[in-house]
Structures are given as structure tokens and as C-alpha cells.
Design a protein that fits this description.
The chain is α/β, with parallel strands linked by helices and about 325 residues long. The chain folds into two domains: about 120 residues, 2-Layer Sandwich (Alpha-Beta Plaits); about 200 residues, 3-Layer(aba) Sandwich (Rossmann fold), CATH 3.40.50.150. Strands 10-9-8-11-12-14-13 form a seven-stranded mixed sheet, with helices on both faces. The longest helix has 13 residues. The termini are far apart.
Length: about 325
């Protein structure tokens, strides 16, 4: 089967938004390649190895995003729809850089499974390791917990700075027995990580039905389908009449985690506050460095107290406590 490969050269800052644009335009898969420069700062605090991953010639701060569309898709129409949306990112403080586009046709075998060779087991925190289902791996200690993941082409592998940062932050927050809401769950990786760390129950939410299916499957792969309830919803909708709904958790909860864009986080800060018990923690991740102040102001204005600010590369995760 032939597919159209739509390549967009942009910045790392704009990756999340442009990837979402491609999904909304009907992409059957999206791949992201960021700078592999030997000069790029890399986190080796947990003994991560990088020498097996080939370097690339993408300049630091830049990224190449590829969306794959069926042979019947009109790529010129797709480009005409996406281009103005990318140009509008500057209005939201997101720099997409000097965007370039490329179009070509490829065989399915060239992209559908080729990315798997780059997804290896990776230790992301003191206790958590992400392992693709097709790789063999032996834990180094009894304390190490393995997140089995088959993200598919529609979701990331969990190694993006925002995800690894969020997992490490969850590890510092969860003490055991907490009920958690995971907003924008994607592949379900944070929900699975939360249960491994001691959460008793998790409500995983996503607006994308494909994400819901992926999270359900990954929960099953990890034997957690009885502790993770996945629902197609945003936070606001699921809270309406929440006491009468079967949500898998009892509102209010002790922890809410959201690894999504700052612009989306700003939309439901008050809803998170209402969903938390007093003293409960809100982990807000996916925040690029130029959005730190505006997110912090929104959290404080809603009544949160900033307990911690965690960083990796140019990304930030807030731990905010309900007063």
C-alpha cells in the first residue's frame, strides 16, 4: 500500500501543536525527529545510554515532523488547511521558525514499523522503565517497575521530555493509595506509571477515541484494566454529575496530572481545583519555557500554591497544591 508522506520542518517548541494539526487532518501516523546533535544536553542521571542512537543533522532547537496520509488523500488540500494554522501559532507565543514543507509517496513498510528500531527500553525515573512490548528486558532490581507500551503510530513512546518529566514528578508526589485523574492520557503511560508507583485507582481521560482505545489496550497489557478506567471526555464534561457517574474514582481525588499544552491547561485550572481534595496535588506538564509565568499566574489565581517546579530541557512541570 502506498502512503503520502507530508514532512514539516519546524521548531521543537511547535512540535506538539503541529503534530496535533496533522492528526486532525487525518494522518494515519505521525513521526517526530528532534535534534540529534552531539552538543545537545542529555539527561544521564539514571544511566541512560545514547551512543546507540544515531546522531542526525537537525540543528539544535529544530525538529522534523512527518505525517502519513492514505493514497486517496489530497495532500495539497491538507497543506492548505494546515499552513494558516501553523502561521497562527505566533499569536499564541509559539515560534514555529522558518517552516518548510515536503511531499512524497512511500511504501507502507517504509514507515509503519521502521520507527520501532529506535524505541528501546529506557529508564525514566528511579523506579520506572518504559519498555516496548516487542523488546526483551530484565529489571535491574526488585524495585524497578516496567511500563509495557505499544504506542502505535498515533502516540509517542514516552521518551519526550514532557512525559519523562511528568513520570519523575509523579514518583515524587505519589505516596501510595491515591486516586488519580489523568487528563489527556494518550497512550495511558502516565496512568500506568501512577499505578506502578502506588496509586489505587486512575481515571484516564482523552477527547480522542483513538487515544482511548490505545490507553485501554496498554492498560490491559500491563494487567491494570481493573484499576484504570479510560473514558472519552475532557475534564469539564466528566465532572458534571460526577458523583452519579461510574468514574472508577471517588471525587474529589488526591492527584490530577495533565501532560498537555499550556494553552489547554489554562482552560480548566478551576475545574482541576474543584476535582482535588484540600492538600491535593496538580501536576501540570507540557509547558514550554515561554509559558511558565502565565501558567503559574493562572494556578495561583485559582487558589493553588506552587509546591515545586520541575524542569527538563526547555520544558516545565508544576506541582501545585490545593490550599
Amino acid at each position: 500500500m502506498l502512503w503520502h508522506e507530508f514532512t514539516i520542518h519546524t521548531t521543537e517548541e511547535a512540535v506538539e501543536m503541529i503534530s496535533n494539526f496533522l492528526h486532525e487532518a487525518g494522518a494515519g501516523g505521525v513521526s517526530i525527529e528532534e535534534s540529534g546533535s552531539p552538543n545537545k544536553k542529555r539527561d544521564t542521571s539514571l544511566g541512560q545510554w545514547y551512543d546507540e542512537v544515531p546522531f542526525n543533522d537537525i540543528p539544535e532547537g529544530q525538529a522534523v515532523i512527518k505525517g502519513y496520509f492514505s493514497e486517496e488523500a489530497d495532500l495539497e488540500q491538507v497543506q492548505s488547511e494546515i499552513t494558516p494554522r501553523i502561521e497562527e501559532l505566533a499569536d499564541f507565543g509559539i515560534c514555529a521558525g522558518e517552516v518548510r514543507y515536503e511531499l512524497k509517496t512511500v511504501n507502507e513498510d517504509e514507515w509503519a514499523t521502521a520507527w520501532k528500531q529506535y524505541f528501546k527500553p529506557i529508564r525514566v525515573s528511579e523506579r520506572l522503565t518504559i519498555k516496548p512490548t516487542w523488546e526483551e528486558y530484565t529489571p535491574e532490581s526488585e524495585e524497578e517497575r516496567i511500563i509495557e507500551l505499544d504506542p502505535g503510530m498515533a502516540f509517542g513512546t514516552g521518551t519526550h521530555p514532557t512525559t519523562s518529566l511528568c513520570l519523575r514528578t509523579l514518583e515524587s508526589v505519589i505516596q501510595g493509595g491515591e486516586e488519580v485523574i489523568d487528563v489527556g492520557t494518550g497512550s495511558g503511560i502516565l496512568s500506568i506509571g501512577a499505578v506502578h508507583l502506588g496509586a489505587s485507582r486512575v481515571l484516564a481521560l482523552d477527547l480522542d477515541p483513538v487515544a482511548v482505545s490505545s490507553a485501554v489496550e496498554n492498560s490491559r497489557l500491563n494487567g491494570m484494566e481493573d484499576r484504570i478506567m479510560v473514558k472519552e471526555s475532557d475534564l469539564l464534561s466528566v465532572l458534571k454529575g460526577g458523583a452519579e457517574k461510574n468514574l472508577g474514582v471517588k471525587l474529589p481525588v488526591q492527584v490530577v496530572v495533565a501532560n498537555i499544552l499550556a494553552e489547554v491547561i489554562l482552560l480548566f485550572v478551576d475545574d482541576v481545583y474543584a476535582a482535588l481534595k484540600p492538600g491535593g496535588a496538580y501536576i501540570a506538564s507540557g509547558i514550554y519555557k515561554n509559558k511558565i509565568d502565565i501558567v503559574e499566574q493562572a494556578l495561583v489565581s485559582s487558589g493553588f500554591e506552587i509546591a515545586d517546579v520541575c524542569r527538563e530541557d526547555d520544558w516545565v512541570a508544576f506541582v501545585a497544591r490545593k490550599r
